[in-house]
Write a structure and sequence with these properties.
Number of domains: 2
Order of helices and strands: HHEHEHEHHHHH
Structural class: mainly alpha
Number of helices: 9
CATH superfamily of the largest domain: Response regulator
CATH topology of the largest domain: Rossmann fold
Number of strands: 3
CATH class of the largest domain: Alpha Beta
Helix content: 40-55%
Radius of gyration: 17 Å
């Protein structure tokens, strides 16, 4: 987790024990420290990233993580419940957004959802949040940057093993993202997902 307040980090650590009493949590007070930890610990499952940090904004850090560790899901934390910020964060590739005023159960729900390969969209966004990568109106959050990378490989006809090799991630991670993509398009297999994406006019963003 990345937050410049030690007490906040410790509080979040206690909350995350709700996932598993033996959960391992790495802590960083700056983005620079977090990037170093991500390079050293390649088995990190998820990052909790504060929106306001001393050395760069959460959005800037999100961009760095997206380029260097595209397979790593990010959940943004913020003391603000500003809907515009929520939209911007999710559009920029975060897998979830949770306000610091939320109950512990909401954070745990969001983390579990994201670890399962899904996107957690705050209730404040309601149903007016449109996916940017589609031409028509869509009430679901957009695919994450990681899912877009996998979808791009699917559109090229690559297997899970080939995708894993191309993105430098495990086949298990690829399977998780493929499952999320199938759910997103409400289809049963990869071929149907590719067809559904094409029919919907899906175009991975240039930043993915």
């Amino acid at each position: 987790m990345i937050d410049d307040h030690a007490l906040v980090r410790e509080g979040l650590h206690q909350v995350l024990k709700g996932l598993d009493e033996d959960v391992s949590v790495l802590q960083a007070g700056t983005c620079e420290q977090a990037f170093a930890l991500a390079e050293k610990h390649v088995d990190i499952d998820l990052v909790l990233l504060d929106y306001h940090l001393p050395d760069m904004t959460g959005l800037q850090a999100l961009d760095v993580f997206g380029k260097n560790h595209p397979e790593l899901p990010i959940v943004m934390l913020s003391g603000s419940a500003n809907v515009q910020i929520m939209r911007q964060v999710l559009q920029s590739g975060a897998s979830g957004f949770v306000t610091k005023s939320s109950l512990s159960d909401e954070l745990l729900h969001a983390v579990r959802l994201v670890l399962n390969g899904d996107v957690y969209s705050p209730s404040e966004l309601n149903s007016d949040f449109g996916a940017l990568s589609f031409d028509g109106a869509n009430t679901k959050p957009p695919l994450t940057q990681r899912q877009e990378l996998v979808l791009r490989e699917l559109l090229d006809g690559r297997s899970n093993r080939e995708i894993g090799s191309s993105l430098n991630v495990s086949e298990e991670t690829v399977k998780t993202h493929v499952t999320s993509i199938l759910r997103y398009f409400d289809v049963q297999n990869r071929t149907q997902a590719v067809v559904a994406a094409a029919r919907s006019g899906y175009r991975p963003t240039s930043a993915a």
